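Budget justification note: compute hours in this period were largely spent on complex prediction jobs such as the one shown. Inputs:
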Amino acid sequence: AQKVTQAQTEISVVEKEDVTLDCVYETRDTTYYLFWYKQPPSGELVFLIRRNSFDEQNEISGRYSWNFQKSTSSFNFTITASQVVDSAVYFCALSGTGSGGSYIPTFGRGTSLIVHP
Amino acid sequence: GAVVSQHPSRVICKSGTSVKIECRSLDFQATTMFWYRQFPKQSLMLMATSNEGSKATYEQGVEKDKFLINHASLTLSTLTVTSAHPEDSSFYICSASQGRRETQYFGPGTRLLVL
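Corresponding output:
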């Protein structure tokens, strides 16, 4: 069975602070995908990243960066110099690749990020 | 690219009526579409997976006769909530992917309120 844990229910920061959202996962699949999605107050889920379990390189995209540590089964997400527009609920998700594992993603409970001006 | 639309964005209906929600992939062919339900401040709960041209696969506990899903084309899937009750009030989100192993792209969601 797959499981995604986002232990932080809510994080509150002041603008320009850096913030890291934690994601820990469990899976028996040897290959899998990890995702991060952003859900602003409007409700739409915005795809941020998909990472294959083979690729442990960290990734940076503008103010966003992701740290994938297979040894600790974690896929943490850092926002540098946070902005008010970053306020949203962020979901981490895990899926198999379909090769013997389920391709249906399992979502964490989400972390609500509030960035104050 | 990878834009998914949903219609309507909000709907209010009376108890006992049926409501149809459309999910469209605008710029790609979606062989697989997913329907989720989300309660306030909670995570997404997968309701069903639909593949174009075949019957939907429902998750355990989801009534297939109450939540009718049709995936008639590669760009359109519909969810019909039949004989809606107040407890069906929720945020319904669809997603679409170009294949089972591909990334899901989500629609903007539909807020359903049953009075």
